[in-house]
Amino acid sequence: MKKIKERILSGEILISDGAWGTMLHSKGLKMGECPEKWNIDHRAEVLDIAKSYVSAGADMIETNSFGGNKFKLEYFGLGQKVAEVNKAAAEISREAAGDNIHVLGSVGPTGKIIMTGDISLEELYYCFKEQMEALESGGADAILIETMFDLEEAKCGIKAAKEITKCEVICTMTFDGNDDIGFHTMMGTTPEAAAESLIEAGADIIGTNCGNGIENMVRIAKQIRIVDKKIPLLIQANAGLPSMINGKVVFSETPDFIAKWIHPLINVGANIIGGCCGTTPEHIRKIAGVVRNSKG
Prior knowledge:
Blueprint: H1 4-9, E1 14-15, H2 21-26, H3 38-41, H4 43-55, E2 60-62, H5 70-75, H6 82-97, E3 102-107, H7 121-137, E4 142-148, H8 151-164, E5 168-173, E6 176-178, E7 182-184, H9 191-201, E8 205-209, H10 214-227, E9 233-237, E10 242-245, E11 248-251, H11 255-259, H12 262-267, E12 272-275, H13 281-295
Parallel strand pairs: 1-12, 2-3, 3-4, 4-5, 5-8, 8-9, 9-12
Antiparallel strand pairs: 6-7, 10-11
């Protein structure tokens, strides 16, 4: 199987998967429960989610390991099970993916803040090391460092992935804001500044996920492309911003709504398109349909 970056540089537009948390909750994950523990206790349900995204047309699927770092797992009393939980996550997605679909080892923020002294860069590095080694050993062929808001943490993650694994390295940041005030991470980093730093740190693929619906993602992608026209770009929009209706979290952007924005997203330079919070296999199916019909 070709590397993701090679496929993009040859002209392909690729499809990633959608939300995992949304799908886990639909299968019974309770608020406050550890999603990653499901890799051990509810393997069949996690495998079914992975398979549903493959069936929807994804070229790559993530692992159920977003909060699988030592610090997040310690909260649930699972700090000694980092390797077991992450290896299982990768094995599940690899089983669903087979030999022709890429598996992205999902690595989310640790929840620790470097600038406040909450954690040192050395501690952060070894936290990433433990998780990434397990993901690679379980079958991940890329590491996806995602939903980052602290540029220093993101860069540390890239460094660890590059030095520890043989995987391709993807890093996505999450931005707040709008056209009036501009887009920026919680730490104040703009899409342009983030792109420059992530490329300099050695990421093979960069992008943005979460925090925005599809329209804002088009704007953010455009800003990233000001910095670099060629770096492979991954975009994973939420299905809009969540609202609470009758005690349930509801996302407003339907698969058909998101499908209307796929061509504009491609036109501003997106190379990999998928979904984040609130998106489902049906969203991915619609995205894949637009992309593949445009090729024909």
